[in-house]
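User: Hey, my collaborator sent me this sequence without any context and asked if I could get a structure. I don't really work with proteins. Can you help?
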Amino acid sequence: QGEDTLIRRALFLQTLVCAMLGEPPAPAARAVLDRAVLAAYHARGITSDPRTWKRRAPVLADLATELDRAGKDGTAEAADLSARLAPYVTGSYRGLFAGPTTTRPQGHLVIFSLRDLPEETRTVGMLLALDAIWRQVANPEDRRRRLVVVDEAWMLMRENEGARFLYRL
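Assistant: No problem. I've predicted the 3D structure and written it out in C-alpha cell form, which is a compact way to encode the shape of the chain:
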C-alpha cells in the first residue's frame, strides 16, 4: 500500500501542475516532471514507508527547485516547466502556494469557498480543495457514508486534467 500511496500523491501533484499550465506537457516534459516530483518527495525524506508520511510534504517551491536542478543539468524541458510555474512559485499567485495548507477539513459540514480566489487560480484551488476532501473521504479507517457536492464543477470540467480528476473521484 505504501508505494501506491506515494504514487497517488505524485500523480495528483502532476495533475495539479498540468492544471496550472493549462495543458498537459509533452511526453518528454511529463517524464521530467515525474522525476522532479518524486525527487521533491525524496528530498523531504518521504518514501513508500508509512513511517515517513508524518514528515512535512514538499511544496510547489520544492518541485521548482528540483526542476531548476534538472534544468542546470541541461534538461530544457525542466527549465521550461520551472519557468511556466514561476507565477505560482515566486510570482503573483504565490500566496496560495507559498507554504503548506493551514486548513484541516474536519467537522460535520465542511465548506470550501473559492469566491475570493482570482479567476486564474480557481480551477487549481478547486483541485486542492477536492483533493483534501477526497483524502478524508477515502480514508480506509473511517468508512462512514458521505455526500460530496461539487458546486460549479464546470470549472474543473473545462480543463482536461481537472475533468479527469473529477471523473476519478
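In plain terms: The helical segments are 2-21, 27-43, 60-72, 76-89, 94-97, 122-137, 154-157, 160-168. You can pass these C-alpha cells on to your collaborator as they are.
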